[in-house]
Specification:
Largest sheet: none
Helix content: 55-70%
Radius of gyration: 24 Å
Strand content: under 5%
Number of strands: 0
Distance between the termini: 80 Å
């Protein structure tokens, strides 16, 4: 057993051409940790409100509307930022969402959303994509904050009470959000 360990150590410590295998593994580990830390830091930075409103079409349009909602200002002082509703919490789904969101960044870069008129022209399509995504995930982002079991139905407004009548109605928050949305179809 001792000779096997000695041979393994000799292989790890012996130089390849220029560096030992142990040195290469150590450097690879440190590089991996630094890459992962930087990547994760970047992922979290793109979840901030400041990042979301850094594009003027978000700051001048959607953000101004958001500031008028209960998700921005309410009696409890709890504020939901963009990523609370638009980015999944678990890492794998968050990564997938970030990759898909790169198309939105491309829309900013190629000018599709840069001006108010172009943004408004694409707004319904963007909203429908978001509603479909929320419906497909059963509004999981909403349920990260809104737990039906802990809701006080007596203190809710009538529409909210209808929405949260039973635990099986988890899809209704999306439908209520769609109905309450100021976005109108060009056909309407």
């Amino acid at each position: 057993m001792a000779s096997k360990m000695a041979r393994l150590w000799a292989a790890l410590a012996s130089p390849s051409v220029k560096y030992s295998l142990l040195g290469l593994i150590s450097a690879g580990f440190v590089t991996g940790v630094l890459f992962w830390g930087g990547f994760n830091t970047g992922m979290e930075a793109t979840n901030s409100l400041e990042f979301c409103i850094s594009c003027h079409e978000m700051r001048d349009n959607v953000y101004q509307e958001y500031k008028q909602t209960i998700h921005y200002s309410n009696r409890t002082g709890v504020r939901a930022v963009c990523s609370d509703c638009h980015v999944p919490k678990d890492w794998s789904h968050k990564l997938i969402r970030k990759v898909k969101a790169s198309a939105e960044v491309w829309g900013q870069a190629d000018g599709n959303h840069r001006h108010k008129e172009k943004f408004e022209a694409n707004r319904l399509r963007l909203a429908e994509n978001e509603w479909a995504r929320m419906k497909a995930t059963d509004s999981v982002e909403c349920r990260n904050c809104h737990d039906f079991a802990s809701m006080d139905k007596e203190k809710q407004k009538c529409a909210a009470r209808r929405c949260t009548r039973s635990p099986r109605t988890t899809r209704r928050p999306v439908l209520i959000a769609i109905k309450a949305s100021p976005i109108k179809s060009p056909k309407a």
